[in-house]
Amino acid sequence: MRRLTLALAALVALTVPAVADGHAERATLYPSRSVGEVPALRTTGTARVVCKADSAKRLRTSWAGKGPKRTKQRAALLKQLKRCRFEHIQQAVDAAKTGDRILIMPGVYREEPSRAIAVKDPKCEGPTYWEDSGDNHTEDGRVPTFLHQHDCPNARNLIAIIGDSLDADRTCDRKCNLVMEGLGRRARDVVIQGDRKKPDVLRADRADGFQLRNVTVEEGAYNAIDVVETNGFRLSKLVARNTYHYGILTFTSDHGLYEDIEAYGNGDSGVYPGSGPEAHCRGFGIEVRRVNSYGNTLGASGTAGNGTWTHDSDFHGNAAGIANDSFAAGHPGMPQDCSKWTRNEIHSNNWNIFEDDNEAYCNSTTFAQRRKDVVCPVFQVVVGVGFMLYGVNDNTFAENHIYDQWRSAVRMFGVPSVARGETDPAKLLDTSHGNKFTTNTFGMAPDGTRMPNGLDVFWDEQGLRNCWEGNVSAPGVGVTSDPPSLPTCASGGSLNPVGNTLKLAADLPCISWHPRTNPDPPGCTWFTTPPKPGSAAAKAAAARAASGAGAPAALAPLSISAPSQGARGPLTWADTPRGFAPAELPQDRVITGQLRNTSGAPLDVSAAAARMYDETGAEVRGVATFASGFAHGLYSPRVEPKEAEPLFESVRLGRRIVLAPGATTPFTVAWRLTPGARPPSRVTVGTVSIALPATT
């Protein structure tokens, strides 16, 4: 493994950009941790009122009803309406100064002047307005600089609050401490509607002290609400819905609060505090509370989601509940560490949006033309999981209720550093350490109703100091886990830095997921719908497990014989490969091991075009990868990039390897057999042919 890591380090060091972001964002830096705070709710300051022609009617409807409070509020707002001077929110932002309040009367705000500005505004072309993304992430490999956001704020944002001038300090100095508030009784009374073309509906960029309250934001071509490099923000009483990727995204921002958020219908996650504050367990820079996130691919997520405390929230009815991870390259703050999850409900996240009919609709219909009620996943997740934790460190999970998760309540895996483009060999196994699970309730709702999980904990057994203590399930039912015994906190926690190689290998075929070309990769169980615990299908699976045939998530080991001699070449097995059959996919087989370059010359080999053949020369459907752990591609596969995939990205995702003479590399193959078909005996990767062992 060390020889592979050194080879990768030499290769990646030549190709990886100094800073790259995991979504279409420029290179960003964290605000200072030593200054700043969450802005307090404010009702003073110069008011700039925005309204529509029907705002009075909507206002009366919103605040209809008898009673002195309603009557007084209605009268006050109708009086406020007379001060309206702006038809569009961006007009009010343009006129605003530091400390102003932008008050938005009930109505639908489509921001027609901003819509009329082209996404690729010709005023902002040229090298000063764009920088290399370095990661194959955008259509032409470029992302807009801060100068672009400053000079062409409405090219990519329907509404833009750009707080910094063009000085060198990267700090807000012109539109700071702005309050933007809807004046309806509910958030749905003020709707800011994106055009499904501009990436962000509303963007606050270096806008320290920004507050957004009591509005609905929808239909962004990437995000509904995007807060970037901002020190101090408050996002409260919001609805964020029906976007291509994220409902609310904050990135390299600090001293922030999400509260009373409803998020649904988003192709990635409802809320995303990504590249969170780097407090390193000395505190929490972002608080997330009273979030109701449902009907998304993920309820919440955060690559490098550091220093965040999420509590008293409800994540339900998504494909998967929550993801924290370190498997996407270039996010500032990786590997992820030091977040806390307490008193949340994570349940019933079993919605399989990877089913064939949904994928077919998504593949044939552009985002601009899709029905609002359709969610198309922009990357792969494990359907039926509550917490999907990949490469996380020193996090706390306490007093949560995690139930009705048909696959598992918690899934925790390590991620090798090469998966995020890290070149230092000493960091290879630097994730999945120090995570603490205490006083959580598994398989039971807060009212005591038993709603079991398929498995409470599924862990790859990797990492140091991971521990479980004081967790409970329904009366008379213990916490279920794989492995069956979990290390306690009193004992000091786990001791194995490497993990179970078969469990790690079971994830690798899922890297190759592509909604158009490979929507159901052989060997990948992520997209099957697990049987509901207690159902006839679940009982049948349990009976198979009792008879030795394997549990639903089990990896039934295969008997491996020597590889065929007919496919000898410069890449040969360095050890005896291991194999298994996923119980959920009885026609699939997975083989994993190490290959060695036995030639005297370096090999540059691509697994992207791997092909498998049986002894007769007939092709067998399968996938191959050089990855050593799951990694997430950065570019949504639904929109193909114009540029070729950079070498560093191909290496990071296990699609390509440059291997020195004598060096070894991980290699995993998976295939799916149709009835009567023969298993493959060899796999070709480019011009190299590799013998496969026979399996029984």
Automatic annotation (TrEMBL):
Does this UniProt record's set of keywords contain Signal?
A: yes
| Record organism | Paraconexibacter sp. AEG42_29
- Coiled-coil parts of chain: none
Q: Which residues form the signal peptide?
A: 1-20
Give the superkingdom in one word. Bacteria
Looking up Gene3D superfamilies in the UniProt record yields: Single-stranded right-handed beta-helix, Pectin lyase-like
Query: What InterPro entries does the entry give?
Result: PbH1, Pectin_lyas_fold, Pectin_lyase_fold/virulence
Q: Recite the UniProt keywords alphabetically.
A: Signal
Tell me which SMART domains the record gives.
Answer: PbH1
Q: What is this protein called?
A: Right handed beta helix domain-containing protein
